[in-house]
């Protein structure tokens, strides 16, 4: 049984990581294609860091992702608190169904709806287009909020109701209960929602493709545009740098989290 489990995990991780290794391998190719490896070179990394347009696009993508994670965590937490505070089970279920519909809706439909909305707003304001940074950011926040709600709600339902009741009996105000009891307790859910929003924003292509414009580009849309003309090995270099950065971030998070658990056990 153990051998079968290890074999299964080995196959799964191979499927996931072999393409990344293959991509990173050819980022050091002195040639210009992924057909033959002509020799080791850092030329594509040099070209990448000298490509100011690509660096601006990377910064755009990261800024939108961070802001999306932040605001979706805030609004999603408020939404979860609102649903949790409802007395009627029927109302709670109705809001949850509405929330879940937004999660399972195809990205193309969401992208089209945002495109129509921003086009309508542009006409009402009498301007050519408002598509760009703000349209991308607002769209990413909108489709990330339902995910944050689902991250935070379980933590609220896990929270002992007696803690809140005891604080109220001792004279705590609504703000004190929220800031000193509820928020600290659901912080893991809020952080999970933040990182989910950030990840979905970095990963999104379909919605961004519909709402971007006015010279504003994100990495996913730029890679798609380059793929239609033949991807440069700069993309391999960029993907390798981002993968290493993500691996380091995950490793740091793991080390910090493990050290905290050890302190709590002691």
What is the topology?
Elements: H1 2-26, H2 43-50, H3 52-85, H4 89-104, H5 107-125, H6 133-158, H7 161-169, H8 174-203, H9 206-211, H10 219-227, H11 233-265
Encode the helix/strand succession as letters: HHHHHHHHHHH
Note the overall shape: globular
Overall helicity = over 70%
Enumerate the spans where pLDDT stays under 50 for 5 or more consecutive residues. none
The counted number of beta strands is: 0
As a percent range, the share of strand residues is: under 5%
> What is the CA–CA distance across the termini?
35 Å
Structural class: mainly alpha
Count of separate DSSP helical elements = 11
Rg is 23 Å
The major sheet is characterized as:
none
Mean pLDDT: 82
Which terms summarize this structure?
mainly alpha
What does this entry look like structurally?
The protein is mainly α. 81% of the residues lie in helices and 0% in strands. The chain has helices at residues 2-26, 43-50, 52-85, 89-104, 107-125, 133-158, 161-169, 174-203, 206-211, 219-227, 233-265. The longest helix has 34 residues, at 52-85. It is globular and about 75 Å long.
Could you write a compact summary of the structure shown?
With 266 residues, the protein is mainly α. Helix content is 81%, strand content 0%. It has 11 helices and no strands.
């Amino acid at each position: 049984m153990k051998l079968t489990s290890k074999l299964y995990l080995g196959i799964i991780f191979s499927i996931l990581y072999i393409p990344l290794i293959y991509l990173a391998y050819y980022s050091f190719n002195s040639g210009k294609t992924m057909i033959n490896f002509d020799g080791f070179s850092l030329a594509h990394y040099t070209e990448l860091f000298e490509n100011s347009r690509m660096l601006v696009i990377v910064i755009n993508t990261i800024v939108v992702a961070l802001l999306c994670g932040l605001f979706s965590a805030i609004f999603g937490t408020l939404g979860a608190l609102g649903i949790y505070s409802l007395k009627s089970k029927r109302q709670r279920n109705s809001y949850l169904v509405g929330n879940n519909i937004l999660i399972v809706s195809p990205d193309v439909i969401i992208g089209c709806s945002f495109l129509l909305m921003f086009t309508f707003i542009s006409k009402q304001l009498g301007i050519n287009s408002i598509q760009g940074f703000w349209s991308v950011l607002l769209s990413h926040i909108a489709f990330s909020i339902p995910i944050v709600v689902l991250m935070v709600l379980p933590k609220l339902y896990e929270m002992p109701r007696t803690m809140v009741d005891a604080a109220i009996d001792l004279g705590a105000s609504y703000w004190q209960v929220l800031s000193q009891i509820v928020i600290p307790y659901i912080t893991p859910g809020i952080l999970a929602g933040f990182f989910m929003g950030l990840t979905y924003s970095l990963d999104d292509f379909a919605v961004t493709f519909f709402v971007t414009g006015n010279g504003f580009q994100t990495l996913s849309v730029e890679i798609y545009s380059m793929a239609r003309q033949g991807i440069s090995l700069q993309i391999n270099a960029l993907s390798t740098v981002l993968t290493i950065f993500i691996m380091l971030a995950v490793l740091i998070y793991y080390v910090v989290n493990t050290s905290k658990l050890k302190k709590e056990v002691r």
